[in-house]
Each structure stands twice: as C-alpha cells, then as structure tokens.
Amino acid sequence: MNWLASLREQRDRLWVPVLLIVAWEIFSRSGWLPPSLLPAPSTVCRTWADWVFSIDESSQANAGRWIHDALASSVRVFVGYAIAVVSGVLLGVAIGWWRWVEKTIEPTIQMLRPVPPVSWIPLAIIWFGIANKPAIFLVFLGAFFPVLMNAIHGVKTVDRNLIRAAAMMGGREAQILRYVVLPAALPSIFAGLRIAIGSAWMLTVTAEMVAVKSGLGYVLWDSYYFLRYDLVIAAMISIGLLGFLTDWLIKLLMSRILHWQHGQTVQGRNH
Amino acid sequence: MASIELKDIVKIYKDRKRGTELLSIDNVSFSVDSNEFLCLLGPSGCGKSTLLNMIAGFESATSGTVSVGGKPVLGPGADRGMVFQQATLMPWLPVWENIAFSLKLAGKGAEERRAAAQPFIDMVKLTGFENHYPAELSGGMAQRVGIARALLLNFSVILMDEPFAALDAQTKLEMQEELVAIWQRHQGTVVFVTHSVDEALVLGSQIAVMTHRPGRIRELIKLDLPRPRDSTSAEFNEYKRHILALIREESALARADAATV
Ligand SMILES: Nc1ncnc2c1ncn2[C@@H]1O[C@H](COP(=O)(O)OP(=O)(O)OP(=O)(O)O)[C@@H](O)[C@H]1O
Ligand SMILES: [Mg+2]
C-alpha cells in the first residue's frame, strides 16, 4: 500500500495551498474588489495559458512568448550565478586559508559588501548599457557575497586535526587544499549556494524591471503599466516556480555530493 | 632506526584573548631508543597529547629541542605517524579510502589503494565495513580505522594517543595483542599514551610516569618482564604497586596545589 501512503503524504502537504486558492477564487468573484484589481485564480490561469501556448490572445502581445521570457531570465541568472560561484569559492578558499590574502583583500570586501546590489543599477547601466550585461552584473553581485562568506567560513572551521592528519600522510599544501579543505568546507559552501540562488533571481527580476527590455521581470513591470494584474500575478508565479526549481536542483546536487552526511544530521522528525 | 630525544622541553600556551599564559610542559627531557615501546602514563591535562604533538611536529616547543633519528623535528614528516585521541577521519570518505588516504596523496589508483587497504581492514577487524562512512561507525570502530591508517604507512615512529580508550574489553585485548605482534614483527619506535596502568604494563618496554600539570617526568621505568605479559605474575604486580603508589602521591600533590591556588 505504498501509493496510499504517498497519497496521504501529498494530502498533508497540499491542503493548505488548495484552501488558500479556493478562498481567493471565492473572494475575487464576490465583487468586493473590482475584478481587475485582484483577478481570480481562474483568470490568471487562462492568461497564463495564453502566455505559454497562445490560445485566445488574452495576454495580447505576450501570447506564446512565455518560454522565450523564461529562458531570457534563466540565462541571466545562470551566467551571473556561475561567475559568482566560481569566483566566490576560489576567493573564499584563498581568504580562509592564507592569512596574507585575508589581510590584503578582506577589508575591501567588507567595505563593498554592505552596499545593496540594487544601488549599483545606475552605474551598471552607464557601464554596460541596456541589455544582458547589467543584469548579469547585478546577479553576480547578489550571488557573490553569500558564496564568498560561506566559503570563508567553511574553510576557517575545518578541523585542525584533519589537516594535521593529511600533513602526516605526506600531503603537500595544494593536495591538502584539494583533498581535505575543499571537501570539508562543502557543506558550508552549499549553504551559501542556496542563499545565492535566491538573490540571483531577485536581482534578475529587479534588473529586468529597470534596465532590460525582456524576461519575466520586464513582462511583470510592463503589465503593471497596462493594468494587467492577471499577467503580473502569472509572472510572479512563474518567477517563483523557476526559483523553486533551481533551488531544488541545487538541493539535489547537494544530496548527491554530501551523501556522506546522511545519518549524521537531524533529517526532520515526525511530530 | 629512529630514536626520539626530548631536551629541556617547555611548552607555554598563550591565550591572547584572555591575556593569560598556561605552563603545560615544564622542562621535560627523556629519550627513547629505537625499537622501544614507551608508554606515557599521567593524569588528564598533564600534557601527554601536547608532547605527542611536538614529537609529530604539529606543534613547536616554547623552548628545548625534539629530535627524531638524530635530526631536529621541524614539522610533520614521513617517518612519524600519529593515531589521534579523536579518530580524525575524513567524514566524506568511506573506511577503505580513509585507510588508504596516504596512497591517494601519493597518486596511486583506486584499485591499488583498495588492495593495499584490505589487509589492514582485516587486521583491525573491520571486514564488511569497507564502504561505511565514519558517521556510520561507533567510536571504537572509528578509532580502529585511525590505527589501520597509521599502520599502513609503516612509520618508523608511531605515536598513539589513548587509541584503545573507546574499545570494549574483548576488542581491546585483541588489539593490544595485535599491536605488540606488529611492533615485534616490523620493529619501530612506539610512544603510547594511556591512563591505564595495566595497559601500560601489558604493552610497554618502558613506562614514563608524568606528574600533574605542569607536566614533568616523574619516573622512567624500564620493564623487565617476559612477553606475553602475565598480569597475574608477582613481578607484574610489583611494578603495578610501585606505579600506583606514584600516581597516588601525584594526585595528593595535585589536590594540595589546587587547595593553595
Ligand atoms: N591548543 C591549546 N591551547 C591552549 N591550551 C592548550 C592547548 N592544548 C592543550 N592545552 C592545555 O595544555 C594542557 C595539557 O593538555 P593535553 O591535551 O596535552 O593534556 P593530556 O595530558 O593529553 O590530557 P588527557 O589525558 O585528558 O588527554 C591542558 O591544561 C590544556 O588545557
Ligand atoms: Mg590527551
């Protein structure tokens, strides 16, 4: 009766969201608010379906262009995030491991870190123009610091005796970094990766609202000007779904790579 | 092979945050000839681990010199292996990879490492647990992995920090016998830290009894006992009485010191 148990588990997970959506539908149809201000879930779904599949032109110029918009946003997230991850991990390991790197670079980083990435938008536009580059730059800024800080923390908290054990077994410095420090820091690095993917989506959408003329964030902001709140909500949900999907992919990767942690941590208790 | 010599070792730990200094080792000198089995016996906190760390080259003495095989110790080296007080395994590697980690550093392939690890896995009675991760082992099992890892490297000096403390009586007995057999076969110098007078008498060719903190050597006793050791023999118990008397004196002194501070 395995499927029955899994069905029951699905029911446990789903009844709150289902209830919320039903309540929203009823509220929207009750006429308390003009329907254009809070479109019903059914309207959002219809518009969304047209945005994706071009069915009845209810999303007007956007009909059938969802995949194009979603891809445009995803590419920006992916490129900015990838640059941030590679540079953040490398620099973080260097800062955590070598005192002299920490001394020379850390103060600069601590000065730049409190500047909110969105406040870079004007400079990003005059440097990179209105296209992909300012968005990628912002995504990089948003993702870089969480990756960096967690990598530094991960390296600094490596058990000293593990490094001693490796040195005793003849490990040279480069080998100790590669075979001991990096794997030992991975749980912390992955925590940073998961925070960073959230920032990455947030900044793509922000950049698209201001500095780019395509992507889910652009459709969201453009629809706001045309009072199409059904499209605004469809765009919000799309961004949420893609964010969820990317976070899930990172979690999947994490559970593959950190499988050795299994049985060592609290896995979530029943009741 | 390699003898160990400690000359006028003083170790002071400076605590920068609290602004205090702690005298951990106070002027220790002793030497261990090659192929001896020295057991270090002393109360908790007297500096046994600190001494081992200095011989291993993980820490340096505040003053004094440590030399192994006539050469001063400047850092960890391929001639000295340590079995840590806490097992200190790489949690992301299965048992066999932990045991053969040194071969990975030497650039050996997986197949060769696997084959080299097997006899040591069997020796420490972990057959069947090759692919378990450290988080899935008991404390005593993890400790045995640490022992196998050190034995695989065939060091000429092995430093062991209470390696059998977490084992049950039966396994402890077997491991003690195995360790003595290995030591007799391969020859090599062993420094073995323990709290147990019986264990020191079963294993050692010499016993160094340390004072309470700051650690000094109270007495170095050369054991003249036939192997395998018989813990019921009159000579064995003669040594035991003598050492227990020393320890009792030391703990009385420690209490007196604590009362005056
Ligand atoms: N890294 C360190 N920093 C500061 N003080 C230390 C450090 N390592 C050890 N000490 C101090 O030095 C003293 C000796 O410690 P050590 O670990 O050598 O004792 P031990 O004899 O091995 O004790 P045990 O039998 O409990 O393992 C202790 O008082 C301890 O607080
Ligand atoms: Mg100790």
Detailed description of the structure:
- The complex is a heterodimer of chains A (271) and B (261).
- Chain A is mainly α and 271 residues long.
- Chain A is built from 10 helices and no strands.
- Chain A has a single domain (66-264), classed as MetI-like (MetI-like fold).
- Chain A has helices spanning 2-29, 41-53, 66-97, 99-112, 121-128, 132-156, 160-168, 173-210, 216-225, 229-257.
- The longest helix of chain B has 27 residues, at 234-260.
- With 261 residues, chain B is of the alpha/beta class.
- Chain B has 8 helices and 10 strands.
- The chains are: A mainly alpha (271), B alpha/beta (261).
- Chain A binds chain B through residues 159, 161-162, 164-172, 175, 179-180, 183-184, 186, 258, 260-264, and chain B through 56, 58, 75-76, 78, 80-82, 84, 86, 88, 90-93, 101-102, 104-106, 133-136, 149, 153.
- Magnesium ion binds next to helix 1 of chain B.
- Chain B: Residues 4-237 form the ABC transporter domain.
Shape descriptor of chain B reads globular
What is the first-to-last residue Cα distance of chain A? Answer: 22 Å
Q: Between the first and last Cα atoms of chain B, what is the distance in angstroms?
A: 45 Å
Unreliable runs of chain A = none
Helix and strand pattern of chain B: EEEHEEEHHHHEHEHEEH
Q: From the coordinates shown, what is the CATH architecture of chain A?
A: Orthogonal Bundle
Helix content of chain B: 25-40%
CATH class of chain A equals Mainly Alpha
Radius of gyration of chain B: 19 Å
What's the average pLDDT of chain A? 91
Topology:
The complex is a heterodimer of chains A (271) and B (261).
Chain A: H1 2-29, H2 41-53, H3 66-97, H4 99-112, H5 121-128, H6 132-156, H7 160-168, H8 173-210, H9 216-225, H10 229-257
Chain B: E1 4-15, E2 20-32, E3 37-41, H1 48-56, E4 63-68, E5 71-72, E6 80-83, H2 95-99, H3 101-105, H4 110-123, H5 139-152, E7 157-161, H6 169-186, E8 189-194, H7 197-203, E9 206-210, E10 217-222, H8 234-260
Parallel strand pairs in B: 3-8, 3-9, 6-7, 7-8
Antiparallel strand pairs in B: 1-2, 1-4, 4-5, 9-10
The structure holds adenosine-5'-triphosphate (ATP) and magnesium ion (MG).
